[in-house]
Design goal:
The complex is a heterotrimer of chains A (286), B (144) and C (674). Chain A is of the alpha/beta class. Chain A contains nine helices and six strands. In chain A, strands 1, 2, 3, 4, 5 and 6 form a six-stranded mixed sheet that branches. In chain A, helix 3 links the parallel strand 4 and strand 5. In chain A, helix 7 packs across helix 9. In chain C, 27% of the residues lie in helices and 26% in strands. In chain C, the strands form 13 sheets. A five-stranded parallel sheet of chain C has the order 10-7-6-18-31. Chain C has a five-stranded parallel sheet with strand order 20-27-21-22-23. The relative contact order of chain C is 0.11. The chains are: A alpha/beta (286), B alpha/beta (144), C alpha/beta (674).
């Protein structure tokens, strides 16, 4: 059964493709695994009928936009949910994408589900159910925008002792096989030469060993601080189930507490680590 | 602290800016003030140069405590580098705390070229604090 | 292959009394990469330096570590010595075993071990040092002065007399600034115009000064030694070549009811006007907002009466480009707006004093015009409302200044002394009049200023009342000034004929746009921030841009002139060299790995980073990367720490160097027993 959004997306994709306004349309199609949608690239109006949208459309398609090979095809049409749109705006904000390189089909979204059919954790904190950055808006307005208040989620860890937290995270990072799927899946991890691949000097050890695993996971999270769109792609991609979003949420919370900054849908907003205020809090400084 | 750690002397790595804190440490010297010899200084031009990677690497290499020190707000030789550092480390230390790093092992300070006495007291207090904490075994174990 | 020499200095007893220098040298010799190590009593002495030089030659050293005092003390000395021996000076580093070791530790063993560690750390760093050449920047031997008040005039004249071509830009139709409006100057009571106009004439006639009046700086790009400046010459509607300044047009102009800015609204002027009799240039300008021709298309009287056909109604703004090597900012001040809309919501104004409501409540500059022989009253003290001579005049200090709640927090500095002057000059002109001064403190610091205000009280009989005025209102043709005398603890009411408010000194309105354009820092009030409050007071935060006068903070004339001459000499120093040589400790971009997120560009305090296009052979842009201008980079390294892929690095403090230092800092710290 197709919901309204599916039909509308097909219609827009067809029109854009037949008018030649875009070279490729990135959307969701029927998947082969548990009925879960999968990303598809549509290049002809006919293929547009394969497009769908439903609550299994969890992937962040914006990730594809970080690859030059995709951008080189020409103008790209793309389906985004609010969280995905934050990532897309991030790419524009950080000069990785020009606004005119994309035709954005934003979808209002009541949340998407994980493989187990449960609502994704991130959807419980969604403040962009009705995206505001698009060329086309699909779907009727969703009513409740949720507060991005992670305190309940983080409390369990924040109230642990230092040793407990260390044990918890070591037990997580220990699993890391350094596949870098988190990085590949992240729409904002777009460096062509990641810091972990820099070998003169090799700041982060590359072997799958506690020391390097720790540094890698910390630095990956910190490099996304003030930038992470909260799309959950990293955690979804992690084959060993490291709760990476906990780190991302923690950083988002602290950046809000310290600088009152939150990733939004405004390409002009200033990333927190490129600026400062003379009265920024420095309570930790002697 | 376990018995094995009796007589433990901590390794303190200090990243300090060239213009204020380094000069403050010089002043402590020219004033013949005394402090414990555990600290090893790495001179950087400005705390703005301070990359979080330096802290992780110092712990990996066996530091028991890491000090970062620069110019007071408004005094930066380059105008703004220390403001960037303050922002970065406000958040980075929160992240470290969240993953189980003991923040008592990291100290940030503003020490001007005129504050030789402050350099001494920061070093003394930090060295004593880290000595009381004992060797940073947790980090050293993952670094083996 | 590293061939490093380590030179351990005893500094007489300063190091050697605590640190076993011989042992440090001996252990240093065994460090990887070290070819030669020795110790010596005084490494900075001539024989000590010769020791280093000959070792460099003899052992073909490609790196030097001098373990001695602080690099702040002798880095230059030893780098020069290395250079004289044919080694690139940037391959020489110092290990600080005196200030950071022997002078602060008394345990010989631990201090010696620490010295060994410090040497090892530096050896590891030097192994990764690069030979560097100073950054050389060519210099355009011209200067720009922004603002033609006394500060700008002084700076322009000094530089012009020093042989430098100066471009002087003034936004008003004449140079002269606020000083031209003043009557007499404290504490000597010189006639302001008499001492200013000769300087204005000198500017006009100086072969090295190119004067743009009625012009504004539109854009500034470039960097120290090489600024590119666009100046907007506003349309004057008068052809300056043809006009002979006869002034007939200004007499015949039928539109005559325009408040005269120079007299601060105390008189009227015509639509075509010369701002004041001694104006430079002494040629008119048409105020298009008030000119009948520009409003209705009719009139044109000036055009008809002009014998030289100089009136040009079709004149357009003109943009001219100038290249200069140095800039002096001398944009001056304005008076705090006490009655009308405030520039920001922190300021509340002083409605209770009735400025703007009662014509006989005026500000200090208006009173200057009443005192001035060229003013609207010919120098007679006649109050604006009815032209009568006021017998009771109240002066109120700190209107807007030093007021956290509704004004600005700082002291405007010049008011206390000019109030004394105002009262004194008033008493000279109206000997039977009374002058009252409400004040918070009297702050007349300056050479002979305190004597001056005491003279005002003791000889001229000014009455000083310590307290704030709460309210001014009109009653039976008088202004009732309600205040308090906090010294006697009584409420005071003065029946005044004229009230003069010493309103706060503030920067020119909207001046921050110019400062942003120049890339210089300014404070929360829009005063320019100096590079260092003590040691670099006339330099801005941006190399090659200097500051003079009240754009920096409230100042009197001698201070403004002194600062202007200081700024001029700083600029002359800069421009006296054929090219600038700067430390090559600057950032560099790895273009192969830079992804062009421009975090570095945003974070750079020196604004040294720009976008660079990488093109293919066909000229198509493939991608954009960051580029550092080494002439502008100050070497703080903030860019490096914000770069996710570490694709930008800082010479002298590279990632590799710091990594090596961290790596070696602890490894063999054997002395401290675990």
């Amino acid at each position: 059964m197709n919901d309204e959004r599916t039909l509308k997306i097909r219609e827009i994709a067809k029109e854009l493709l037949s008018k030649g306004e875009i070279a490729v349309f990135i959307g969701y199609g029927k998947g082969t695994c548990n009925g879960k949608a999968r990303p598809i690239f549509v290049r002809t109006p006919e293929e547009a009928d394969e497009l769908i949208f439903d609550s299994t459309c969890s992937n962040n398609l914006v990730t594809y936009l970080k690859f030059p090979a995709v951008r080189d095809e020409g103008v790209v049409g793309i389906v985004v949910k609010g969280c995905d749109a934050k990532a897309l705006v991030g790419l524009i904000r950080e000069s990785q994408l020009m606004r005119e390189q994309v035709r954005i089909v934003a979808v209002t979204c009541e949340g998407v589900v994980a493989d187990d059919g449960q609502l994704q954790l991130r959807c419980q904190y969604c403040d962009v159910a009705n995206p505001t950055f698009y060329d086309f808006l699909v779907g009727s307005p969703v009513e409740d925008q949720k507060p991005r208040d992670f305190s309940g989620l983080l409390e369990k860890y924040e109230t642990m002792s230092v040793e407990e937290r260390w044990e918890f995270w070591q037990s997580q990072f220990e699993k890391c096989i350094r596949c870098y799927a988190c990085r590949q899946a992240c729409p904002l991890c777009y460096c062509t030469r990641c810091i972990v691949e820099k070998n003169q000097p090799q700041w982060i050890e590359t072997s799958s060993h506690l020391r390097g695993n720790f540094a890698w996971n910390i630095i990956r999270a910190f490099h996304l601080a003030g930038r992470c769109a909260g799309c959950g792609a990293c955690e979804d991609a992690c084959p060993v189930d490291i709760p990476l979003m906990l780190l991302n949420y923690k950083l988002e919370k602290e950046i809000w507490d310290y600088f009152h900054y939150r990733v939004d849908l405004d390409p002009e907003s200033v990333p927190p680590f490129t600026t400062f205020k003379t009265d920024d809090r420095g309570e930790f400084i002697l | 602290m376990s018995e094995a750690d009796q007589g433990f002397e901590p390794h303190i790595v200090a990243f300090i800016c060239n213009w204020c804190t380094y000069a403050g440490a010089d002043l402590a010297g020219t004033s013949r003030m005394q402090y414990q010899p555990n600290v090893r200084v790495i001179r950087i031009p400005c705390t703005g140069r301070m990359d979080p990677l330096f802290v992780l690497k110092a712990f990996e290499r066996g530091a028991d405590g890491v000090l970062i020190s620069g110019c007071h707000p408004g005094d930066c030789h380059y105008g703004e580098g220390n403001y960037h550092a303050r922002r970065k480390f406000a958040i980075f230390r929160k992240l470290l705390e969240f993953v189980g790093i003991d923040l008592a092992r990291i100290q940030f300070s503003w020490i001007s070229a005129a504050e030789g006495g402050k350099w001494v007291s920061v070093i003394e207090d930090f060295t004593n604090r880290v000595r009381a904490l004992g060797p940073y075994r947790a980090y050293q174990e993952i670094s083996l | 292959m590293a061939r490093i020499g380590v030179f351990v200095c005893h500094c007489g007893e300063n190091i050697a009394s605590v640190v076993d220098c011989e042992r440090v040298a001996k252990i240093s010799a065994s460090l990887p990469g070290v070819t030669y190590a020795t110790d010596y009593k005084y490494m900075c002495s001539d024989p000590g330096q010769d020791l280093i030089k000959s070792a460099i030659a003899e052992h073909n050293l490609n790196g030097v570590v001098v373990a001695a005092c602080s690099p702040h003390m002798h880095e230059t000395t030893f780098r020069k010595a290395a250079q004289q021996a044919g080694l690139n000076p940037y391959l020489c580093e110092m290990a600080n075993i005196r200030e950071h070791c022997s002078w602060v530790h008394d345990d010989h063993e631990k201090a010696t071990q620490k010295a060994i560690d410090l040497v090892r750390i530096m050896v590891e760093k030097v192994r990764r040092n690069h030979p560097l050449e100073p950054v050389r920047v060519s210099v355009t031997k011209r200067a720009l002065v922004i603002g033609g008040g006394i500060a700008g005039i002084q700076a322009a004249l000094d530089m012009a007399n020093g042989g430098i071509e100066v471009v002087l830009v003034e936004k008003e139709p004449s140079i002269g600034g606020h000083m031209a409006q003043l009557s007499e100057t404290f504490p000597t009571l010189d006639c302001s115009q008499c001492i200013l106009t000769p300087k204005m004439v000198e500017v006009a006639q100086h072969p090295n000064i190119k004067l743009y009046t009625y012009s504004e700086v539109e854009n500034v790009s470039g960097f120290v030694g090489n600024f590119k400046v666009t100046v907007r010459k506003k349309a004057r509607s008068v052809n300056m070549e043809l006009c002979n300044g006869c002034g007939l047009c200004t007499q015949k102009c039928p539109s005559r009811k325009i408040p005269n800015e120079f007299d601060r609204g105390l008189s009227n002027r015509s639509a075509i006007y010369i701002p004041f009799p001694q104006a430079i240039p002494n040629k008119p300008v048409i105020d298009r907002d008030h000119c009948i021709h520009f409003k209705t298309g009719k009139c044109g009287v000036c055009e008809k009466v002009c014998g030289t056909k100089a009136i040009d109604f079709d004149q357009q703004d003109e943009l001219v480009n100038e290249e200069v090597g140095a800039i002096v900012v001398a944009t001056g001040y304005d008076l705090y707006n006490i009655s009308m809309d405030q520039p920001n919501d922190k300021l509340e104004g002083y409605g209770e004093y009735g400025y703007g409501k009662y014509p006989d409540v005026i500000d200090g500059l208006q009173f200057e015009r009443l005192l001035s022989a060229t003013g609207p009253t010919g120098g007679k003290i006649l109050r604006p409302s009815d032209g009568k001579e006021p017998k009771n005049v109240v002066f109120i200090s700190c209107v807007g200044s030093r007021h956290n709640a509704k004004g600005i927090t700082y002291c405007s500095k010049i008011c206390c002394t000019y109030i004394a002057k105002h009262g004194m000059l008033y008493k000279h002109k109206v000997p039977d009049g009374n002058a009252y001064v409400f004040y918070m403190d009297v702050r007349t610091s300056g050479k002979r200023f305190d004597e001056f205000w005491r003279r005002a009280v003791e000889e001229d009989g000014l009455v000083y009342l310590r307290g704030r005025v709460s309210k001014i209102y009109e009653q039976d043709g008088h202004l009732i000034v309600k205040g308090a005398d906090t010294l006697s603890g009584v409420a005071v009411e003065v029946e005044a004929d004229l009230v003069v408010l010493a309103t706060a000194i503030v920067p020119q309105p909207n001046i921050e746009k110019l400062f942003q354009n120049l890339g210089i820092s300014y404070d929360e009030y829009n005063f320019v921030t100096e590079a260092h409050p003590k040691l670099r007071p006339v330099e801005s935060s941006t190399a090659g841009i200097f500051l003079a006068g009240a754009c920096h903070s409230p100042k009197d004339i001698p201070e403004s002139v002194a600062q202007a001459s200081a700024a001029a000499s700083k600029a002359l120093i800069l421009l006296s060299k054929p090219e600038l040589e700067r430390e090559p400790l600057v950032a560099k971009v790895n273009e192969a790995t830079c992804i062009g997120c421009f975090y570095c560009l945003r974070a750079c305090p020196a604004k040294a980073i720009t976008e660079k296009e990488i093109k293919n052979r066909a000229g198509e842009v493939l991608r954009k990367v960051s580029e550092v201008n080494p002439s502008v980079c100050t070497g703080c390294g903030t860019c490096v720490s914000v770069c996710f892929s570490n694709s930008i690095d800082l010479e002298g403090f590279t990632d590799e160097q710091i990594y090596a230092e961290i790596n070696s800092v602890i490894e063999r710290m054997s002395v401290i027993q675990q």
